[in-house]
Amino acid sequence: MKKYTDSGKKDTRSGFGAGLTELGKTNENVVALCADLTGSLKMDEFKENHPERFFQVGIAEANMMGIAAGMTIGGKIPFTGTFANFSTGRVYDQIRQSIAYSDKNVKICASHAGVTLGEDGATHQILEDLGLMKMLPGMTVINTCDYNQTKAATLAIAEHHGPVYLRFGRPKVANFTQENQKFEIGKALQLQKGNDVTIVATGHLVWEALVAAEALHEKGISAEVINIHTIKPLDANAILKSVEKTGCIVTAEEHNYLGGLGESVSRVLAENKPTPQEFVATQDTFGESGTPEQLMDKYGLNAEAILKAVKKVMARK
Amino acid sequence: MPDYNYLNDLIIQVRRDILRQVHKVNSGHPGGSLGCTEFFVALYNELLDRKEGFDMDGIGEDIFFLSNGHISPVFYSVLARSGYFPVEELNTFRLIDSRLQGHPTTHEGLPGVRVASGSLGQGISVSIGAAEAKKLNKDNHLIYTLCGDGELQEGQNWEAIMYAAANNVDNLIVTIDLNGQQIDGSTNNVLPMGNLKAKFEAFGWEVLEIHEGNDLKAVIEGMISAKEKSGKGKPVCVLLQTVMGNGVDFMMHTHAWHGKAPNDEQLETALAQNPETLGDY
Hints:
Chain A has twelve helices and 14 strands. Chain A is α/β, with parallel strands linked by helices. Chain A has two domains: about 160 residues, Rossmann fold (3-Layer(aba) Sandwich); about 130 residues, Rossmann fold, CATH 3.40.50.920. Chain B is α/β, with parallel strands linked by helices. Chain B has a single domain, classed as Thiamin diphosphate (ThDP)-binding fold, Pyr/PP domains (Rossmann fold, 3-Layer(aba) Sandwich). Helices cover about 40% and strands about 10% of the residues of chain B. Chain B contains ten helices and seven strands. In chain B, the strands form two sheets. Chain B has a five-stranded parallel sheet, with helices on both faces. In chain B, a hairpin with a 2-residue loop joins strand 4 and strand 5. The longest helix of chain B is centred in the N-terminal third of the chain and has 22 residues. Chain B starts with a helix and ends in a 9-residue tail after the last helix. The mean pLDDT of chain B is about 95. Chains A and B meet through helix 3 and helix 5 of A and helix 5 and helix 6 of B.
């Protein structure tokens, strides 16, 4: 079994900041907009290096989305930055009409997604954003797993023409994917080969899936682990190929089980190869205040929860 | 010197286009469209510095955004009669498989449209973005926008209005169609907006009023003054007083024709008040 090592905990939002900094140097059409959260989104370096291409819009997210849409008319590639909650639910209609329906090349970059935002509590912890964004026709939806992958995704979406939702988080998590990796939108990554169960995970849950796979390996259970960084378009072939072999699947995400990765996977399975599936996700609930670790534990979003789900799903084969 | 004979003929023909589009599908918004006819004719014939053809980025030309997308009939008519697409296509307004959707969209690739509008309150924000892009591109052209007065009840406008002044977006001319009507009645009854001139000025805008918004000469001269006020550090707002339903006596001065189509008899009466000039489609 392949071992993955944590090269040192880093936050995914810093991966976004690093990617944006690099884009500032390499792509003069990239512009950045922020709604009073420059530090939180790690956009400071871009702002310092390219003040003329940085737009502080204040606490006015709807206006930010409209300005971003307008900037594409003139060839700019706007990256908007605010929390995931204010990047989606608050401005759904603006994104729907001015960006998605109008097919504008805007990159909606959303930090502090999910319960790992922590102590701020439920008002700031959106667990519905993947669903909201994936329902918009033409929207590409990406949720990255670590610092390196977030940086790679940030660089990749600048090259992709069309609206993109890029979701990442606040806490420092294991950084285990390769530095300077190539990021291919819509391409699932097989991290671990296995025969007994498929675990597909996205975002912060990918590392937890690897931890779970290691524990399973010790018990003699071989788990296939797939990193789904792109929720839409979903790499259906990778999922189907895997369940063909394993016959059961666990999906894991820091999101409501309604509307997230798990539901997208269910549709693929229902249409092609009905397969027992268990969902590691929040169960139609809001979050609350607490440390990220406490919340991941309470809401069943860690390796332990994945292990339980694996046991359950394998019994259903 | 504008060719007033031609422009007046065009205004009448655009009114006919509006009425006929809406009548054919028994849906659409004639009132606000008729009220803004002079503005659109002035804009596309005398004000916008336009290039031949259409490209989305609009580099090296002035750009117009329609924020109150429901007045699509006047927008489509003037776009067609300005050469963006065949005038005959007005026959497809609001029909299945048409590029002329109920509210304008880029989705169907209609030349002349650069953003979808219909859900109100988003146009000024988009215009600011396009204006900022022009500045980054060192493109010395202007962004024009039209909003309804009732539309200003949407809060996003005020975020945008604050931003434009704070950031000296002075290549932007926002016109407010002050017809005083919205779906449920007069704006004063539904939600009074107070003194809009004072409000825009308090937000740091240059404000200009056109009291006779259905007088072509007044509109052209007023908009030329607005253009002259651009480029001086402040965004420019034009308060354009119009009469909803202008040019058709029974549609004027009421919100009743905001979103209602004339029946056969009413169409005949309305068209008789605006005899054909440049040729129907």
